[in-house]
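ASSEMBLY PREDICTION REQUEST
Request ID: AP-0331
Submitted by: J.K., bench scientist
Number of chains: four
Total residues: 424
Priority: normal
Notes: Please return the full assembly, not individual chains.
Input sequences:
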Amino acid sequence: MEKNNISISVIKRLPRYYRFLENLKSNGIVRISSKELAERMGLTASQIRHDFNCFGGFGQQGYGYNVPELYDKIGDILCINGELKTILIGAGNLGKAVASKISTRKSGFKLAGIFDKNEAMSGKIIEGIPVRHIDYLENFCRDNSPVCAVICIPSNDMKELTDLLCKLGIKSFWNFSNYDIAMAHPEVLVRSVHLTDSLMTLSYLTNNGNEE
Amino acid sequence: MEKNNISISVIKRLPRYYRFLENLKSNGIVRISSKELAERMGLTASQIRHDFNCFGGFGQQGYGYNVPELYDKIGDILCINGELKTILIGAGNLGKAVASKISTRKSGFKLAGIFDKNEAMSGKIIEGIPVRHIDYLENFCRDNSPVCAVICIPSNDMKELTDLLCKLGIKSFWNFSNYDIAMAHPEVLVRSVHLTDSLMTLSYLTNNGNEE
DNA sequence: TAGATTGTTAATCGATTAACAATC
DNA sequence: TAGATTGTTAATCGATTAACAATC
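STATUS: Completed
Returned structure:
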């Protein structure tokens, strides 16, 4: 393993690099220097070179970076072509929105099952996958061995659910609830999207203004 | 203004403190030390005291912190009881999910209008607010002067839309698109929720494992 | 070759943690 | 008073930026 000391802050920047490069590529730009990319992204050239260098350095002295090549390299690092077998818990509005993100080509994930406790949802098709009642979760996992679970339900009963999912072999969670999976299960990987937290931070900033 | 040198990293932690305190409060816990809160939240006691001290210090030596009081104080800092007049652009699944977050009591925001370019959505009611066609956006803003816009549409045409919204007096954005509002309009406040970025980061982490 | 720009190390900056005096 | 725990300053750690030699 080459990549042993890569900090999470660098990893978190990769998707944004990927998006900007995608845009440059689709505009037919083939070559870019760290300086120009920095200007476009609001970063320093130093940071960009430093970041890319964590993965071995993709540039060429005197030239810069080849856009399509760099784009592909970052995609590979993010394992964008992987198909991590994924289940979605909760088929409400948020669940549906999130399902479409997971089902995007090159998300790195593959939606395999959707579960909801609301009987009325059973059988409905979302992104080509039928919604199953939550009671089928355990059997489905035993049969299909998903590795990732996406949580789009409120926090109540999350302890039982996550304990079960971990027992059934789930290795990573995309968590939209406020339940603290990482605290309860340090052995799994968790990325949480706390919508309410984001909104509250915006509330603070809006009320306290831009420049003080 | 007392609070001039409070870093964004502290602000971002406040909502999580708020959630944990809400939970403690609802469990009838009245008093907590920085040490115990640190254990529950996976932080250091030092950081907790340091964070709270940015706002003046809410504790009492030898005792700790009074939970309901601290909870209220943090809510006040986050302006949780404010009602920032807010419009939502995009009434798809994500828009609907997000509308319910905004409409939660004590979110700090008040949903005033919803807009969508899909004619078929016009007149539908979401969180008590009728969906209007996007063509009515300009007049609505002139009549109602919203301060915050929530963006739940794809990135295409975002330049024109955000230019217009800024011109119409929008001061802050909750942005779910990939368009970089902050780069285009440094004068406004932006909190972005990049779902795809979060998912890609999870892809990297899942593929590269927990402990290396 | 001369000019440009990377890769990479060293310096700086900011955030986190440790320590302890103040005080309830 | 003695014990506990904060508020606050100093030390440490890590991330960002600057600098420059390597090299295309």
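REVIEWER COMMENTS: Chain A has a mean pLDDT of 95.
SIGN-OFF: pending second reviewer
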